Amino acid sequence: MTALTLALHAGANSAAAIAVDGRLIYCVQEERLTRNKGHIGFPREAIAACLRHVAADPADVTAVAYGARTGPVAHCPREEFLRRLVDFHRRPGVARHEVQLLADDSPANRRQVTDALAGVGVKAPVSFYEHHRTHAATAYYGLRADPARPYLVLTCDGFGDGACATITVWRNGHATEVARTDLRNSLGLLYFWTTHAHGFTPHEDEYKLMGMAPHADPGRASQVAAVYGDFLKLSADGLTFRRTTTASVERSWPRIAARLQGRRFDDVFAGLQLFTENLLADWTAAAVAHTGIRDVLAAGGVFMNVKANQRLAALPGVDSFAAFPSCGDESLPLGALYQHTADEYGHADVAPLADCYLGDDITEADAAAALADRPGYHVEHPADPAAAVAALVARGEIVGRAAGRMEFGARALGNRSILADPANPDLPRILNRLVKQRDFWMPFAPAVLASRQHDYLHNPKKLPSPHMMLAMPARADALPEMIAAVHPADLTCRPQIVDDHTDTGLAAILTAYQQATGRGILLNTSLNLHGQPIARTAAGALAVLDGSDLQHLQLGPLLVSKTPLIGGRR
């Protein structure tokens, strides 16, 4: 009998995954289907997509793995989520609620999950896995190179199941927890509330604060970092975070905000980033010293901070470092699935993450059906789509790409991407005007052939970076070839290092582009309109083409281009 395991997470940025006989087959975030960015709540549509992908009915599911023991299940619209934050610190009972979160392992939450599953026809038994152990499982099982090798696994986020950070040693599938920090001492919540206080959306815009940080004055940034440091430090042994106030870090936010009042926003962002990097670096160094393990894996939303990851990877005591791709709560289904597979089949049978191309494909039939509703495009069927895209980019065009299976997570990795020549210094302005409409200070990122990475990047430890989870300095002599894909203030970048020999379309495009130009690097940004999730379907990709000044799109095996307007219509 085939074992069909459904895994899910129902909080912020909810998602679902499915495995057949313990092998991961498909994973998708709810936002890609509802088009509600960062969707909060039960992943009804993602579950349906998982079942469609394996041609199964809800009754066919044999087991369910859930990546937490507590947390919300009901949908919370984005507007309601933001409204609740406005007066959060003025509400009575916040402290009481916090105590409940610390202790809660309530059967009521599990009933909500099982009831919601029953509502979509899934009645299989559910295994509930602790939130931070699930984050750690994504990193250990998903990224380990050798099951017999010991790994130091760090988790850090806002909070989940009463904790905000853990240190665990994993060896031969066995986890030994070294230290756990409770949610009252949360670094992630400091970033959350600073994001909200400056008009950005928590759970979504934290990276904008990180992007602004290098523009600020280092001296003023140090002053701000000291303010944060007055409220959160490391314990004497360096293995946990500790607050300096009786109230939690979260409930202390009004006092922190008062100390920051009147400071420039760029200084605040830079100070928070400096504080975050320093705290994480000292914490990681203490964990390495305590355990003697120099191979470090990481997961949890705080490790979406690629500049902090750069600091950790460079620590002299760290031999290797990797953060699980898109390691926020959207990855919890994968960690739950890994743990369930280990429980059922043994830890050695858990296959590591091969890549992030876990979503829907776009076939020629899909592309043709979407185009049938949109006449007026010039459509080609090139014999070599990769060469056709590379040729367009080589002559200065910006090309969207929606081909192959959609990427899981926050990063576009070539299959739902916009590609362009990073040697054009005016490209960020052009992209923002034509398509992206991003905040002016936000940098774009490069995709680099692995065989050419050392021509473009400083990567002395030769760390892999297939999923854009690390920042790296750009080589000064390579800047003319990649200037549009580096941070203009500190000349670092968030590279996707692409194996030359993979069968992904991006590797073929990079190879063809190198043959045409001599350069093994492209600018790669996500295929979406401002404020919307990354495109999923052929119709969604065409909506980006329609709603922007983008001129060219690879759509499955087809190449679609806009034609001149005739009589007011294409």
UniProtKB/TrEMBL annotation:
<comment type="similarity">
    <text>Belongs to the NodU/CmcH family.</text>
</comment>
<dbReference type="InterPro" id="IPR031730">
    <property type="entry name" value="Carbam_trans_C"/>
</dbReference>
<protein>
    <submittedName>
        <fullName>Carbamoyltransferase</fullName>
    </submittedName>
</protein>
<dbReference type="Pfam" id="PF16861">
    <property type="entry name" value="Carbam_trans_C"/>
</dbReference>
<dbReference type="InterPro" id="IPR003696">
    <property type="entry name" value="Carbtransf_dom"/>
</dbReference>
<feature type="domain" description="Carbamoyltransferase">
    <location>
        <begin position="13"/>
        <end position="336"/>
    </location>
</feature>
<dbReference type="InterPro" id="IPR043129">
    <property type="entry name" value="ATPase_NBD"/>
</dbReference>
<dbReference type="GO" id="GO:0003824">
    <property type="term" value="F:catalytic activity"/>
</dbReference>
<dbReference type="InterPro" id="IPR038152">
    <property type="entry name" value="Carbam_trans_C_sf"/>
</dbReference>
<dbReference type="Pfam" id="PF02543">
    <property type="entry name" value="Carbam_trans_N"/>
</dbReference>
<dbReference type="InterPro" id="IPR051338">
    <property type="entry name" value="NodU/CmcH_Carbamoyltrnsfr"/>
</dbReference>
<feature type="domain" description="Carbamoyltransferase C-terminal">
    <location>
        <begin position="390"/>
        <end position="562"/>
    </location>
</feature>
